[in-house]
Specification:
2 copies of one chain form a homodimer. The first copy, chain A, is mainly α. The first copy, chain A, is elongated, with a radius of gyration of 21 Å. Chain A has 2 domains: 86 residues, Winged helix-like DNA-binding domain superfamily/Winged helix DNA-binding domain (Arc Repressor Mutant, subunit A); 141 residues, GntR ligand-binding domain-like (Four Helix Bundle (Hemerythrin (Met), subunit A), Up-down Bundle), CATH 1.20.120.530. Helices cover 66% and strands 4% of the residues of chain A. A 3-stranded antiparallel β-sheet of chain A has the order 1-3-2. The interface between A and B is large, with 55 and 55 residues. Chain A binds a DNA duplex through helix 5.
DNA sequence: TGACACCGATGTGTGCAGACATCAAAACTC
DNA sequence: GAGTTTTGATGTCTGCACACATCGGTGTCA
């Protein structure tokens, strides 16, 4: 019978599986199974049963359950057990949850959510960066934008991806809003996912390359309106390029929780 | 010497302190102390020491530390201990972290971040709701908007606050984007915080009341552009009303994390 | 006889204490 | 200074006592 260690070695999670902690593996195991629906909403597990199934001790199970609880994936009730909560209770901003959803059937819906969020946030971040970013970040943004254009022309896909991620990261970081800045990780996920799934053209759109340069130079010049415009252009194009991946995904309307 | 139980009874956290779990109290205790800076970045604690200080057992400390770890507040290293991480590593979207920051010196900065996020997201949500929301939510939004206007005219502050929260919650929920919908909780925090701190006028701005009605009716009519405009008006006014609270707060530029 | 309130048995999470394993920092040796 | 050993903290496991929600049985009253 395979243990958590065996499962981890076949895992799709490269970086995380490096950290050889049973606790972490248990979280990955249960988290993915809940989010894929293998452990459906309302499903009840017993701590004792999880010990046997995962072949780990109580302390490991308990610590893992506590973390999943803080992510809104499960709740514990005395005399009942560990109950799987509905997706509406999951914390959609947690990077683990996002990662698990991106590698599940809900991948399209997750991408749509992320893109819509980015479309709303990045133009605002561009505006803020134009008004507030420190000089060094502005210079860096311009340099990256030019390098990005060059990489786009030369067709170096790997370098292009890295620069693309760096560009949007610096932009979000330069907004001076820590919530915006924290979306860097999610942005990186969408951008890398895009190339992994073959959604990148061999030669990036010439207009998109120029918009990146325009955005960077507007930020450098402190021209908030132009920066926002350029960012909106970029996001519109990104949305249209990716919208094909979620055409079949139904929208979910989370019920308003009232006390 | 006061125990965690005693401390909890003086706590500012009403709902949470009801749940009488040592685990939860330990998280609150450590979380608030880290975020207020009482436990500064780089500060190193030992699990054994925490047991004595909090007068709880090892398992409680360990489970609490695990949760704080998943929030990015601490990291554990063998042979070293439990190290407090810099604010740039904290998960700014976690509702606990937001709550802790709202009741700390960084309150202004947290409010600014939230308002900027809302200003970016709500107009987008209005657009999405106008295009996608189910009929029932559209009707509900219109009803709430009218009730909100009435409450504003009659000067019932309590009812006004409830309806205001309900309005924005339904709007975000109606967007069909689970990340937008999840911001409900944070929105509620900012709105309630606003009244608690005496930032609400006796009689709400007449224009703002009308914008809410306009927004609701535009969503009901499927008029995305008008819905967005109305939402932007509302957020502009909210921002200008609250901007006084963070004038002294410096912006923090989170460094871009590269692997 | 039926409805209802009470109450105790049961099972599960919660909290505790102690032991050993593991592994990286630090000290030591050469 | 490179390699090795020591050390000390977290990581993991286990047995136990307790709190308490749920369920079923019992008793009371109409």
């Amino acid at each position: 019978m395979p243990t958590l260690w065996d499962v981890a070695s076949q895992s799709q999670f490269r970086l995380e599986s490096m950290s050889t902690s049973l606790h972490h593996r248990a979280i990955e195991n249960l988290g993915t199974r809940i989010i894929t629906g293998e452990l459906p909403t309302g499903h009840i597990m017993l701590a004792e049963h999880l010990e046997e199934e995962l072949k780990v001790s109580r302390s490991v199970v308990r610590e893992a359950v506590r973390v999943l609880q803080s992510l809104g994936l499960v709740e514990t009730t005395k005399r009942v057990g560990i109950r799987v909560l509905p997706p509406s209770r999951w914390n959609p901003f947690d990077s683990q949850v996002i990662r698990w959803r991106l590698s599940s059937d809900a991948r399209g819906a997750q991408l749509r959510s992320l893109i819509e969020l980015r479309s709303a946030v990045e133009p605002a971040a561009a505006e803020l960066a134009a008004n507030n970013a420190p000089a060094q970040l502005r210079r860096e943004l311009v340099d990256i934008a030019h390098a990005l254009r060059d990489a786009g022309h030369s067709g170096d896909a790997q370098k292009f991806l890295e620069l693309d991620i760096a560009f949007h990261s610096v932009l979000l970081s330069g907004s001076g809003n820590e919530m915006f800045a924290n979306l860097m990780g999610q942005v990186a996920e969408t951008l890398t996912g895009r190339t992994v799934h073959g959604l990148m053209p061999d030669h990036p759109h010439e207009g998109a390359l120029q918009w990146h340069v325009d955005l960077a130079e507007a930020v450098a010049a402190g021209d908030a309106a132009t920066a926002r415009d350029a960012s909106e252009q970029i996001m519109r194009r990104t949305t249209s390029r990716l919208s094909g991946t979620w055409t079949d995904q139904p929208r979910v309307f989370i019920p308003v929780r009232r006390n």
